[in-house]
Amino acid sequence: MSTIKDVARMAGVGLGTASRVVRGKGSVSPAKLERVRKAIATLGYRPSHAARSLLYGTSRMIGVYIPLMSGTFYTAMLQIVDAELRSAGLHMMVAFGVEREGARQQAIDGVGFLFERGCDGVIVLTSPLLEEDLEALGPRRGKLVLLNHSFDSIPEQCFTVDHRLGGRLAARALLDHAHREIAVIAGPAGVADNIDRIAGFMHELEEGGIDPSSLWTAERDFSSDGGWSAAQALLASGRSFTAVFCANDEMAMGALACFHEAGIRVPQDVSVIGYDDVPSAAYSAPRLSSVHIPWREMTRSGVAALLNLCYGFERPLTRTFPVSVSLRASLARPSRG
C-alpha cells in the first residue's frame, strides 16, 4: 500500500507539499500540484484513517444518532447527511436506538459512543435528551447539532420547524375541503414534535367549530403497521368519518393499505392526509396529501453548521424552514352520499 511519502517521492516534491495537496489546503504551485495529482492517480493512493487523522489533526468523521433504524424517514435523512459529508471529504458513523422504551438512556449512550469512537462532531435526530444531558457532555456539547429538536442553551446548534403550525395546516386543509367528521391517528404521546403537531391540529379544528374531544383518536408508533392497525380499529369502531389525519406518512400509508383491502375508496369514500411529505408519499396509491416539512434544507443546514463548528468552515446555512401542504389525490371533498 502506497504512502504519502511514496507520493512525494514520485512527484519529486517535499512531504509537506504532498500533504497540502492531499488536505486541499495551503499554497502549491500549479506545476507541483499537477505532479502530485498524477502520482496519486498512478499509485492509487488513498490516505488511511490514521494518516488522515495525523494530517488534519481530526478524525474527519461525523457521528449521527437516530432513535430507530427503521422505515423510510430516517433513511432519507441519512442519505442527505452522507452526501453532504462526502462532498466535504468526510465520513459518517451511525449509532441508533433499538426500541422506544428507555429512549433517553439509549440516546445518551449513543452520543457518548460516537464521541468515544473519535467522531469530531455528532448530529442527533429527534432524541429525548434533556438539558442536563447536554451539560454532562462538557466541552463536547459545542460539537453537537440537533435536527428536529431544540434546546434553549444551544439555540444556534438546533434546526427544527414549527410543528404546531404543521398540525394547523393539516386541519385547515381538511376544513377547506368541508370535512367535519375526522379521525386522528397520532404518534407516541411522549414525542415532542408529535405533541406539537397534534396540539396544532386540534386547535385549528376547535377554531373551526369542531370539538376536539369528540374526535376518534388512536395513538400508534409512527410505523406503517401502526397505521394499518389503527385504521382497522377505526373501521371496527363503527364511527362515521370522512377524513383521517395521520401524524406521519408511514402511518398514513398503512391506513391507505388497510382501507384498500376493506374496499374503501380513497378519496371517494374517505380522505387521508399525512405528515412529513417523505419522497415515497408522491408515489403511494393514491398519491398521498401531506404536510410538507423541508427536511432536506433543514438537514443540509444542520450539517453545514456542524462543519463550521468542527472544522472552521464558512458554509452558508438557513434557520427558517417554511411549512406547507402538498395537496395530492388522497384528499377531496366528502361525497354527497
Summarize the structure in words:
With 337 residues, this protein is an alpha/beta fold. Helices cover 44% and strands 15% of the residues. The chain contains 12 helices and 11 strands. The strands form 2 sheets. It has a 6-stranded mixed sheet with strand order 7-6-8-9-10-11, sandwiched between helices. It starts with a helix and ends in an 11-residue tail after the last strand. The model has no long low-confidence stretch (mean pLDDT 92).
Fill in the keyword field for this structure.
alpha/beta, 11 strands, 12 helices, 337 residues, 44% helix, 15% strand, five-stranded parallel sheet
Enumerate the spans where pLDDT stays under 50 for 5 or more consecutive residues: none
Q: What's the helical proportion of residues?
A: 40-55%
Largest beta-sheet characterization = 6 strands, mixed
Question: Helical element count?
Answer: 12
Structural class: alpha/beta
Distance between the termini: 74 Å
**β-strand amount:** 5-15%
In N-to-C order, the SSE pattern is HHHHEHEHEHEEHEHEHEHEEHE
Q: Kindly state the mean pLDDT as a whole number?
A: 92
Give a brief rundown of this model.
This protein is an alpha/beta fold. It contains 12 helices and 11 strands. The radius of gyration is 25 Å and the shape is elongated.
Topology:
Layout: H1 4-11, H2 15-23, H3 30-43, H4 49-56, E1 61-66, H5 73-87, E2 91-96, H6 103-116, E3 121-125, H7 131-136, E4 144-147, E5 158-159, H8 163-176, E6 182-186, H9 192-207, E7 216-219, H10 224-237, E8 243-246, H11 249-261, E9 271-276, E10 289-292, H12 295-311, E11 324-326
Parallel strand pairs: 1-2, 1-3, 3-4, 4-5, 6-7, 6-8, 8-9, 9-10
Antiparallel strand pairs: 10-11
Helix pairs in contact: 1-2, 1-3, 5-12, 8-9, 10-11
